[in-house]
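Feature request, filed as a ticket because there's no other form

It would be nice if the structure record came with a short human-readable summary line next to the tokens. Right now we just get the raw output. Example of a typical job, pasted below so the devs can see what we mean:
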Amino acid sequence: MKEEKRITKLLAPAGSPACALAAFDAGADAIYCGLAKFNARERGENFSPEVLAKVIQYAHSIGRKVYITFNTLIKESELPSVVEHLALLEKLDADALIVQDLGVLRLIREYFPNIEIHASTQMGIHNSLGVKWAEKAGVERVILERQITMDELKTIRKSTNLELEVFIHGALCCSLSGQCLFSSYLGGYSGNRGRCKQPCRRRFFSNKGNGFFFSPQDLCTIDLVPQLRDMGIDSLKIEGRLRQADYVYNVVSAYRMILDTPTDKLTPAIMGEARRLLSKSCGRKWSHGFFSEESMKNLISHDNIGSAGMLCGDVADVADNGFYFVAKKKIHVGDRLRIQPHTGDDGPAMTVTKMFVDNKDVKKATVGQMVFVCYDREVPLRGVIYKIGESFKDYNSRLESLKEVRRKLDLQVAISQNLIQVKTCNTLKEITWEKAINLEKAAKHPLNAEKTRSEFACVDSNEFALGNISISIDGEYFMPGAVFKELRREFYSKVKSELQAEDIIDSTSEALAKFYFDYKRIIPEYAKVEPNSETLALKVNGETPGNRKARKAISIFDFNKETNQVILPEFTPESRIETLKKAIKIAYESGIRSFRIASIFELELFADYRDVELVATFPLPVCNSMAVMELQSCGVSRVLGHVELDRKSLEELRDKSVLPLEVYRYGRVVLLNSRAAISIDGVIKDARNNKFVVKKDNRSRLTRIYPEEIVSIPRIDKTFDYYDLQNANWNAKETSAFNFDLDLL
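Raw output as currently delivered:
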């Protein structure tokens, strides 16, 4: 059978309801957005449930889709709230949820199976084995790791029929997705929980020079769209949920133009117009991101400040009610500005509501004029001023006019030659309506389920809409359209006269009750105190302090006769999969039976090994008991609690974990992991005198950033100890408790 050609869709960010409307106006096939909790952009405006419901209903009325970001790591104590949110999102009829946490994936699959699951880029899936695992786990679309090349993408596409999505435009993180602890380390503001403070955008200092060593250029692939479309990538994703409606409209319009133009019709004039639209989006310098080896080499220009926007000037002076600067670009009332300190730290952002030139109130200022912008907050003197958005039309009236959400009515329809019967299925009072009919046998175009569903979807009501419908037709009959319309009207007339919206039964209540029942019955697997309760992760020819009976773990590429556990790499590009498979085979044949899994794809490597122990280890995050259960179902027999968890969260995880729990007690944690070329190594520090170590690994071709301090935390009762000496020495003097004594945000 000939494979159906894939139609590439355009997915736009919507950090606010106005951005959602702007995206649809510009031609987005779908948007992604989030509620106030459990999404990776909690700093954004986001949506209330009431407004989100209206936006989803509006999107469906024009044939578009809405995907909800649920892409953060979840602490054990948050699981009940997570389930309540999932129940709400199922009722709102979102088209899919974008998920990072393995526990959330399991909750959806077990209790809300009607919700479509998209694996977030934060899940870190970066090769064909990861996609294979995702398909088995019930995922319908994988949003791939941003740090894969075009050649790797082609190989992955050929390996699977699963839907694939890639980022095509917007800001880039320096770190591999889901593996950044930089912000979390500097005060507990976890980027994996939507609270990133972007320390990678700051200026850093070393005895080899200063600069913005971890601040990449923005991604722009407008010229790669034809190639991605021809490759059969299902969804092209634009980054920007912290951006405003003007950005969304301009960027979506540009990519829509190129996506809709056949390759042989794509002229320089069309490409030029698309680039002109993109130039209005006020971002950083453009690049191809990680799509090519060449781009990776030039992705970071350490001598450029890491701020996004169009350079407009420098703060010349400040007053109690505003600041002065000489305009280098036109400025209009309604434009949005950010004033960036030279440290690279976050600066204040504001919308220009009032400004003066020569003491005259003006609506715009031209290049070269001294401008005074009214602003009532502190502004850094000599801060660099960037335009990050332009004045744009107001969507408030359209948002206010969105229709109220209607309650979904589930129906059961049975049609025979002489009778039509319709029953409500999810109402407190069951309504049964039937009417005698006399249908003729169809010569052609017989009545079918699709036509029946379409007819009953036309609900003339402000309170009700069609939900699920089951249809039974006992033969091939002809139903005149006018007759069917009249029958449908009679049925809904009865519904409206006998039912209120409150009579609709909440179908999620059963799922909630089942979760709470199951959750209370979980029996934890406390670790026993044993002589070999320690695991030492060692460097090559490293020291072996502590308990001599402790298990000795080392990289799978470096094990020796003393090794009884090997550690798999956190990142394996497509070209290195066979090398890793061979290394596993050699280790197994050498007697190794314990393997530490650092990335979800590695579970696929052990399908043919029946007598091995698999341990989930850093940076594969395990934060809650549902994630533990998901890993257990994949053959894992022990887990390492996520290293950024605080004491309380680790203890709560231990008390519900169905597998023995390890705790990262000692070591130098990787804060950032990148394929980008980083022009510094050795010891660096930031403006606050926090010190870090940058190391380049020639084998993996990754650059890693570590804190100078060693993480050292107290023992937690009834857990196993994990000591990581791969990049640390024993008995270090400078130590840190990381988030252990904080409440992880």
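Something like this underneath would help us a lot:
The chain has a mean pLDDT of 92.
The longest helix spans residues 481-498.
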